[in-house]
């Protein structure tokens, strides 16, 4: 890129510093430092690629997080897209638009968090771009991964009669966000779920390698909204059992104070859990599962989404999923 002479110097110094944070990896024959990274490809594999943009003021606020967590979360939300396809994450690329007011130490913390999170999965930072921002901090992350040819789990494979599963617990991140927005104290476990989500890479791979899921995605915009994508792509409907939704103990306590909170588990964003369909009814019991999964419903031929309450009545969620353009 071309930027002003002054920031260009700091840009080179920063890139140099970033390069030193990245260990060597046999995934790359050439990493940071040239015009492109070079990745040798294995035969019989499909390449997966996904990009996310995180803009200050829209996706994050600096007062709600620390820079290390922000970097780690930027990596996790992007790796989650590879998890959602059942892939192995391999390389990431990091674009940074940096406000001049930001200290070097802040940007270094962000990159430390980013690199630490990717390293957990053996993922290597293979390149990126760095420039100045006249406004907000912007973070663009691109991840590449691989699956055996033809085994990626897409959104369009669900069939009527199959079972619907979700990993982990729902609504914790949305509950944390609500508290932050209200200026309340956030319980540590909930704050952790909001600031440091986990990409379910191992679970995604396990499901793909054992051919256990027919359709899958990661929940970023809320269970109902994201399930809608599977229903649309697969041309099926679904019935969800409200009482089966997996909830954390913190979330269940919040529910005691306000029953309406259940809508946060149905439609709150940023869970980054995997939502998938399977022909197997007993998936929860499989011994090799890397994360607990819960059966929350069933796919139907009738193309509608129904939520069934404990007494058998239909439940109406009062909130839609998160929509950036709404
Ligand atoms: P170019 O002018 O070709 O865009 P740059 O000077 O922007 O090259 O980048 C030099 C090298 O540093 C490239 O390998 C690029 O991928 C890498 N790089 C730049 N910014 C980042 C970053 N934020 N994270 C990781 N690598 C980066
Ligand atoms: Mg560049």
Report on the structure:
It is globular and about 65 Å long. It is built from nine helices and eleven strands. Helices cover 33% and strands 24% of the residues. It is α+β, with helices and mostly antiparallel strands. It has a seven-stranded mixed sheet with strand order 6-8-5-9-7-10-11, with helices on both faces. Strands 1-4-2-3 form a four-stranded mixed sheet. Strand 10 (305-308) and strand 11 (314-315) form a beta hairpin. Bound molecules: adenosine-5'-diphosphate and magnesium ion (MG). The site of magnesium ion has 2 residues, from loops.
Q: What is the secondary structure topology, with strand pairs?
A:
Elements: H1 5-21, E1 45-55, H2 67-85, E2 88-99, H3 104-119, E3 124-133, E4 138-148, E5 163-167, H4 172-181, H5 188-195, H6 201-209, E6 215-218, H7 223-234, E7 237-241, H8 249-257, H9 262-267, E8 274-278, E9 293-300, E10 305-308, E11 314-315
Parallel strand pairs: 2-3, 7-10
Antiparallel strand pairs: 1-4, 2-4, 5-8, 5-9, 6-8, 7-9, 10-11
Helix pairs in contact: 2-3, 2-6, 4-5
The structure holds adenosine-5'-diphosphate and magnesium ion.
Residues 1, 129 line the site of magnesium ion (MG).
